[in-house]
Design brief:
Layout lengths: L5 E6 L3 E5 L5 E5 L10 E2 L1 H31 L3 E6 L3 E6 L5 E6 L2 H9 L7 H14 L10 E8 L8 H14 L3 E9 L1 H10 L3 H13 L6 H8 L4 H7 L4 H4 L4 E4 L2 H7 L13 H9 L1
Parallel strand pairs: 8-9
Antiparallel strand pairs: 1-2, 1-4, 2-3, 5-6, 5-8, 6-7, 9-10
Helix pairs in contact: 3-4, 5-6, 6-7
Length: 286
């Protein structure tokens, strides 16, 4: 027997029995014409030929699985948040925030201060709004703005608009701040348009609302152009508009320390606390 070749000892219907160069008896599955007992076979070459169908099957399986993996990696929803920082959250199919992106320097700074990945969307929004208050972007001014817009890429994305609004309200209340809060929904087409225009989604929607309300003679394109360099409040101020005039469904939410002082009931004369006995006698004597 030639060194490196196996000797065929016996053939079966779909297999052969061989003696390998190492002195081992092996029964191997065989396709095609069966060799005759006594023939010597180079099974190394045969193994390479037999490997091809298995490799092809693995490639086909990989091609079939890749679209499923890509689908799983695709976000289920986006949340656009504008205060004066502008940022965007991507929500995964598990209902948790999978990534955050700052759309300006302030947005990047805010995201660097708050760990949002792995949080439920309302918890992420609450943390971001609270940190924005700490950083001085929000205070006791009702002209401050918190704009939230949800974009669903799949049905039932587990991102409820009502929960986002409640999260913003809680953050404002615990921070002793007030702001005008508006939560809306937008289409994927609007999100794509905003990205193409280099604007946050909320800025694009604000510009569109303003363009519908501005007098015909005003250069409306200028509003969109200026919006790239301006914050939400600046855009509104340049157009001579107050936020409630533009966002009909929003409202001022939260509370401030000044409001608490104004709303605190005054002490009535009859409700004064009792004085210590010695002081009470001296007061009566006077």
């Amino acid at each position: 027997m030639n060194r490196g070749k196996s000797l065929v000892l016996k053939t079966y219907t779909n297999s052969i029995l061989v003696l390998t160069p190492g002195g081992e008896f092996r029964r191997l599955k065989w396709r095609g014409p069966l060799p005759q007992p006594g023939e010597e076979l180079d099974l190394t070459a045969k193994a390479r030929v037999a490997w091809f169908p298995a490799a092809l099957a693995a490639v086909l399986l990989l091609v079939a699985v890749l679209p499923l993996n890509a689908l799983a990696a695709r976000p289920a929803a986006y949340i656009a948040l504008d205060i004066n920082p502008s940022l965007e959250l991507a929500v995964g199919r598990n209902g948790l925030v999978k990534s955050g992106k700052g759309l300006d320097a302030d947005g990047e700074r805010l995201l660097s201060e708050v760990q949002v990945v792995g949080l439920e969307p309302p918890a992420a929004v609450e943390s971001l709004v609270r940190q924005a208050a700490v950083d001085g972007y929000l205070g006791g001014n009702p002209d401050d703005v918190v704009l939230l817009t949800r974009v669903e890429l799949t049905k039932n994305s587990s991102v409820a608009v009502e929960e986002l609004e409640a999260a913003a309200r809680r953050a404002l209340e615990t921070s002793d701040c007030v702001a005008f809060v508006s939560v809306e929904e937008a289409s994927t087409g609007e999100l794509k348009e905003a990205r193409g225009a280099g604007l946050s989604l909320n800025k694009l929607r604000l510009v569109k609302k303003l363009e519908q309300q501005l007098p015909p003679g005003l250069a409306k394109g200028k509003v969109k152009e200026n919006a790239k360099e301006q914050g939400i409040k600046q855009i509104l101020s340049s157009a001579g508009k107050k936020v409630p005039e533009v966002f009909a469904n929003g409202r001022v939410q939260g509370k401030s320390k000044e409001a608490d002082k104004k709303n605190k009931p005054k002490e009535e004369h009859g409700n004064r606390p009792a004085l210590p006995p010695g002081q009470a006698v001296a007061t009566a004597a006077r």
